[in-house]
Design goal:
This protein has about 230 residues and is α/β, with parallel strands linked by helices. The protein is built from eleven helices and eight strands. It has a single domain (about 5-230), classed as Aldolase class I (TIM Barrel).
Length: about 230
C-alpha cells in the first residue's frame, strides 16, 4: 500500500465546487471518505465521479437497521463500486452477517465500534453500556470478525489491542487522528498520526485539519512525513 493511501481524507463538505477545489489543491490525495453530509447532498453519482478520477472511496453511511434492511442497503451501496463501506456493530451479529452476505464486487465491509466522540463517561452514563471503552470496542470488533467483516472503525487508542486479539489482517480504520497543534473539535479519543500508525492503524481518517486548512497540501504533506517516520 502506498503511504498516501493510508490517509483517508474525510470530505465533510456539502457543495461540489468545494469538493473539486479541494481535490485540485491536493493532487496526491488518493483515498477519500464520503459521509452522510456529502452523500445526501450530491447522491450516488458522486461515488462514480470520484472513482473515475482514480480515487479510492470509503462510503461512511454507518448502516444500522434490522438484518433484512441492512442487507438491502449494503447490496445497493456496494454496487456503486466503493472500496469500503460500514455498518454499526451495535446492530448485532445477525445484522452484520446479513450485511456481509450482501456485498457485491470488491467492496470491504467494516463495523463501527464506538464513535470517537464518545468517552468513558458518555458510554457508561448516557448510553448505559458498562465496562471500559476498550473492552466494549474489543467485544464489538470480535463480533464483527465473527460476522465475516474485514475490519472495524475504532479510535487509535484501541488499535493495538484489536490487532493483538484479532490479527494483523483485520483492518483498523481510525478517525480521531489530529496532527500536533490541531483543534480537537468534537473528538474525544484522539491521537497524532504517528501515534496511530505505531498503534497499528491501517488507515487514518482525517478531515477538518486538511479540508478547513488555508493550505491543505501543506497539512497533507506534513501528515505524510509523520507517517513515514513512524513506519
Amino acid at each position: 500500500m502506498k503511504v498516501t493511501e493510508r490517509i483517508i481524507v474525510a470530505l465533510d463538505l456539502q457543495a461540489e465546487d468545494k469538493l473539486l477545489g479541494l481535490l485540485a489543491k491536493v493532487p496526491e490525495l488518493s483515498h477519500v471518505k464520503v459521509g452522510m453530509e456529502l452523500f445526501y447532498s450530491l447522491g450516488p453519482d458522486l461515488v462514480k465521479m470520484l472513482k473515475d478520477r482514480g480515487l479510492k472511496v470509503f462510503l461512511d453511511l454507518k448502516i444500522h437497521d434490522i438484518p433484512n434492511t441492512a442487507y438491502g442497503a449494503v447490496n445497493t451501496l456496494s454496487r456503486l463500486g466503493c472500496d469500503m463501506l460500514n455498518v454499526h456493530c451495535a446492530g448485532g451479529l445477525a445484522m452484520m452477517q446479513r450485511a456481509r452476505e450482501a456485498l457485491v464486487g470488491e467492496t470491504k465491509l467494516i463495523g463501527v465500534t464506538q464513535l470517537t466522540s464518545i468517552d468513558q463517561e458518555a458510554m457508561n452514563q448516557q448510553l448505559r453500556i458498562q465496562g471500559s471503552v476498550e473492552e466494549v470496542v474489543l467485544q464489538y470488533a470480535a463480533l464483527a470478525k465473527e460476522a465475516g467483516l474485514h475490519g472495524v472503525v475504532c479510535s487509535p487508542k484501541e488499535a493495538a489491542a484489536i490487532k493483538s486479539r484479532l490479527g494483523k489482517e483485520f483492518l483498523a480504520v481510525t478517525p480521531g487522528v489530529r496532527p500536533m497543534g490541531s483543534e480537537t473539535g468534537d473528538q474525544k479519543r484522539i491521537s497524532t498520526p504517528a501515534e496511530a500508525i505505531k498503534a497499528g492503524s491501517d488507515y487514518l481518517v482525517i478531515g477538518r485539519p486538511i479540508t478547513q486548512s488555508s493550505d491543505p497540501q501543506r497539512v497533507f504533506n506534513e501528515i505524510l512525513s509523520e507517517i513515514e517516520v513512524a513506519l
